[in-house]
Amino acid sequence: MGAKPVPDRVVIEGKYVTGAGVSAGIDMALTLVTEIYGPEMAQAVQLGIEYDPQPPMTPEPPKEHQRK
């Protein structure tokens, strides 16, 4: 099928976004909010759900997670 396992918590590949686990699903949701509404909205959502990831979620997804 062409899938290749990677160690990333959130992966954006074209129109597909995947997350690896429960807290990674929250990270994925925050990444999508950042992509659609911007980093300020993602930070507001993170504060609203009282999510304190370790390490902290950055306002911008790392380069390897950005849409290709």
- The residue-averaged pLDDT reads 80
List low-confidence stretches.
Answer: none
**Separate helix tally:** 2
Could you tell me the number of beta strands? Answer: 2
Whole-number total of structural domains: 1
Order of helices and strands: EEHH
Oligomer: single chain
The gyration radius over C-alpha positions equals 12 Å
Plain-language structure description:
With 68 residues, the protein is α+β, with helices and mostly antiparallel strands. The protein has one domain. The chain contains two helices and two strands, in the order ββαα. Strands 1-2 form a two-stranded antiparallel ribbon. Helix 1 runs antiparallel to helix 2.
Task: Itemize the secondary structure elements and their pairings.
Blueprint: E1 10-13, E2 16-19, H1 22-37, H2 39-48
Helix pairs in contact: 1-2
What's a concise summary of this model?
The protein is an alpha+beta fold. The chain contains 2 helices and 2 strands.
Key terms for this structure?
about 70 residues; alpha+beta; two-stranded antiparallel ribbon; globular
